[in-house]
């Protein structure tokens, strides 16, 4: 695309905030944000760096998305960079993105929080806090009864599900509400998400006042907290949520760049004490200047890291940086969120920044353990690894763990666990666990990205069981096992005995040990839960509990069973079944 083409395209763009993408066919080359789309895109007609000039020359189209606010443009840019991994952007190598709310394109639309919205859906956001979004969505469902169930649960129902009984859904599935009336409720939800706060705040306020008059003070307090979240959702009440008093959490960042690789080291201080440290790699293409005010080098790396790293993490009270990031939109966002940003020149804070810089320099340009592992196993990448283990007591309270490591560090938000059918067979248990994970992946029911590698805790037998499950489902992901006794790495074609000090072996050991710890911890919880939870339900004695577990295998499966299935168990009537559903 030449300069005239850029100017012509820019001339048709609105003077509003938004995000733009330079595209080459179906490939996104670069994603940028703008306060004024027309002015920002026009600046690319005369790029101030050779790298950006090459990008513009390759592009054959420019796509835009208009946003309501500059903050939304900032967050949407981060999401698109994560999704498309454009070659000419600074890219943090993790998989987080900011949450959005979508209303699906169905006759009876479903509302849900997602990071990967459907193309046909009506989408709102992105937003900074997943917890806040989930609170608001629940309030919307309680007020307007919009369904949140999957299509699988919605289609073919003969009677409403538990959400209807709990007042979360008006049950369009069984036409407890006609589709025209349901559509009016969906329109009300859209009006709120478009910025009409009162359409949800007003009924919540009335309900809160009614609860207070009835002296139901706990309910009134819960509604008050929800009302505050709703009021702040569209930017209202910002001053009331600014942090006050002494800073409890401070993140310290250090940056080191070598070629097109960058490392950001993060130190975490709470109440004046260092409590955590980690390192993150970014791709920072080029270092020859920028365009439209977006400079390369340390400032660009800091700006990109801050937005992308905190996609699903709480912002600290303060950020200590080695130098200014020089991004006005990022600065405005942090200020609105109440984050103090400082570049200390002396004192203890300056020493913390220097320590972060030392940590960053220790990693940059060095062949990391993930790369070494990928080379040793002859696979494309080993950045994202999922570990699996099973635990039980002679076949009782059988469970499986699924932990996730990204760039060598535990990603606990992506941990999952599964209750398994009780059986004293580690191979069958591992087969069931991997079949569950694989089906969720191929049926697009797992919100995590596919891993680069699966690590099975065990030897050849466990690996074979896992691979059989993957093959049966059709999920093509490399899998290896790590046997405890001799620390041998078992693959489908050979066995490795790496030196005990090999960094890539240490990485697998960390994943294996964490999956084992997580499985044992969950097994202990389930073992206690089986003894107590069902016994606490009125009408369920030892014999009925035995029949329930014999039929469904675990408390989790009992929890997911329908009322009709529960009522089919001898000794359980309609009232006991309803009690079970409400208690579990």
TrEMBL record:
Record carries keyword DNA damage: yes
Signal peptide coordinates: none
UniProt-annotated location(s): Cytoplasm
Keywords: Cytoplasm, DNA damage, DNA excision, DNA repair, Excision nuclease, SOS response
Domain UvrC family homology region profile: 252-470
Domain UVR: 198-233
GO molecular function: DNA binding; excinuclease ABC activity
UniProt-listed InterPro entries: GIY-YIG_endonuc, GIY-YIG_endonuc_sf, GIY-YIG_UvrC_Cho, Hlx-hairpin-Hlx_DNA-bd_motif, RuvA_2-like, UVR_dom, UVR_dom_sf, UvrABC_protein_C
Keyword Metal-binding belongs to the record: no
Pfam family, one: UVR
GO CC, alphabetical: cytoplasm; excinuclease repair complex
Main location: cytoplasm
Annotated GIY-YIG domain residues: 15-90
Gene Ontology biological process terms from the UniProt entry: nucleotide-excision repair; SOS response
Complexes and interactors: Interacts with UvrB in an incision complex.
Task of the protein: The UvrABC repair system catalyzes the recognition and processing of DNA lesions. UvrC both incises the 5' and 3' sides of the lesion. The N-terminal half is responsible for the 3' incision and the C-terminal half is responsible for the 5' incision.
Record-linked PANTHER family: UVRABC SYSTEM PROTEIN C, UVRC/OXIDOREDUCTASE
Protein family membership: Belongs to the UvrC family.
Protein name (database record): UvrABC system protein C
């Amino acid at each position: 695309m030449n300069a005239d083409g850029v100017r012509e395209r820019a001339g048709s763009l609105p003077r509003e905030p938004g995000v733009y993408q330079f595209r080459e066919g179906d490939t996104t080359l670069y994603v940028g944000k703008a306060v004024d789309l027309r002015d920002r895109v026009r600046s690319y007609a005369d790029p101030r760096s050779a790298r950006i000039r090459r990008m513009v020359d390759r592009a054959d189209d420019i796509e835009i998305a208009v946003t309501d606010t500059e903050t939304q443009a900032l967050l949407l840019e981060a999401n698109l960079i994560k999704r498309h991994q454009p070659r000419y952007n600074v890219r943090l190598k993790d998989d987080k993105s900011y949450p959005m709310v979508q209303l699906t394109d169905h006759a009876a639309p479903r509302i849900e929080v997602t990071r990967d919205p459907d193309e046909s859906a009506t989408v709102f956001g992105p937003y900074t806090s997943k917890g806040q979004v989930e609170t608001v969505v629940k309030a919307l469902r309680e007020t307007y009864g919009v369904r949140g169930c999957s299509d699988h649960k919605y289609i073919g129902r003969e009677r409403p599900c538990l959400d209807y009984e709990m007042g979360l859904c008006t049950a369009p599935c069984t036409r407890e509400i006609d589709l025209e009336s349901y559509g009016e409720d969906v329109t009300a939800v859209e009006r709120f998400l478009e910025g009409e706060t009162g359409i949800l705040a007003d009924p919540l306020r009335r309900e809160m006042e009614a609860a207070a008059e009835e002296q139901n003070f706990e309910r009134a307090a819960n509604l008050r907290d929800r009302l505050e979240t709703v009021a702040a959702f569209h930017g209202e009440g910002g001053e009331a949520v600014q942090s006050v008093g002494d800073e409890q959490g401070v993140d310290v960042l250090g940056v080191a760049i070598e070629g097109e690789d960058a490392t950001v080291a993060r130190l975490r201080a709470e109440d004046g004490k260092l409590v955590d440290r980690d390192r993150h790699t970014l791709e920072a293409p080029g270092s020859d200047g920028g365009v439209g005010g977006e400079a390369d080098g340390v400032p660009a790396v800091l700006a990109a890291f801050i937005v992308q790293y905190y996609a699903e993490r709480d912002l600290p009270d303060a950020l200590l940086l080695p130098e200014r990031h020089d991004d006005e939109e990022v600065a405005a966002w942090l200020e609105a969120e109440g984050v103090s940003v400082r570049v200390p020149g002396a004192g203890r804070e300056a020493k913390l920044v220097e320590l972060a810089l030392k940590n960053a320099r220790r990693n940059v340009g060095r062949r990391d353990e993930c790369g070494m592992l990928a080379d040793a196993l002859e696979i494309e990448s080993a950045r994202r690894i999922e570990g699996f283990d099973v635990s039980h007591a002679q076949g009782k309270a059988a469970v499986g763990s699924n932990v996730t490591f990204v760039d060598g560090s535990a990603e606990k938000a992506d941990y999952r666990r599964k209750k398994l059918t009780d059986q004293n067979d580690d191979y069958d248990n591992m087969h069931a666990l991997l079949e569950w994970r694989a089906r969720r992946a191929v049926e697009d029911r797992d919100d995590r990205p596919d891993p680069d590698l699966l690590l099975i805790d065990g030897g050849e037998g466990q690996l074979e069981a896992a691979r059989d499950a993957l093959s049966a489902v059709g999920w093509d992901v490399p899998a290896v096992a790590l046997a405890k006794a001799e620390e041998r790495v078992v693959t489908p074609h050979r066995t490795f005995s790496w030196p005990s000090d090999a960094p890539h072996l240490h990485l697998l050991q960390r994943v294996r040990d964490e999956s084992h710890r997580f499985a044992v911890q969950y097994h202990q919880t389930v073992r206690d839960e089986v003894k107590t939870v069902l016994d606490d339900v009125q009408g369920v004695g030892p014999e009925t509990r035995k029949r329930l577990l014999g039929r469904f295998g675990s408390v989790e499966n009992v929890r997911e069973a329908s009322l009709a299935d529960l009522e089919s168990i001898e000794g359980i009537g309609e009232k006991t079944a309803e009690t079970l559903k409400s208690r579990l």
